[in-house]
Amino acid sequence: MRACIRFAMQKSLDVTGRPEREGQVVHLIADTIKDRSVDLSLLGHPNGNVLGQTTPKTDEVPAHMKPQPAPKPRAMHPRDQAKMLFPSRDFH
47-56, 68-77, 82-91: lowest mean pLDDT where? Predict the structure, then answer.
């Protein structure tokens, strides 16, 4: 029996062996184990050529998702600051 086991870390093993059943549990007794991780890049390609990087790097943030830098606060005259804080000088 041949089984191709695929791990979550994108590894692939080719295992040749025989199954053994013990109650409800099925064990695979492996005779040979071969690492087939290199062949994963060939899957689904019409020419069978090695594919380049098909997914974006997860360590990089796309340019459209990067936060924009905050504008630098510009120096203001105290009178201009007072006009922003108190629009009217009419305190009656």
Answer: 47-56
For residues 42 and 49, the model is more confident at 42
| Helix boundaries (H) for 1-92 | 78-85
Give the per-residue pLDDT at 7: 43
In eight-state DSSP terms, residue 61 is -
Q: Beta-carbon neighbour count of residue 89 at 10 Å?
A: 7
Token pair for 25 = 């549990």
Confirm if 15 and 7 have CB atoms less than 8 A apart: no
* Residues pairing with 5 in the sheet: 13
Q: Which of 6, 12, 9, 60 lies closest to 35, judged by CA?
A: 12
Q: How far is CA 9 from CA 3, 6, 16, 27, in A?
A: 18, 8, 21, 23
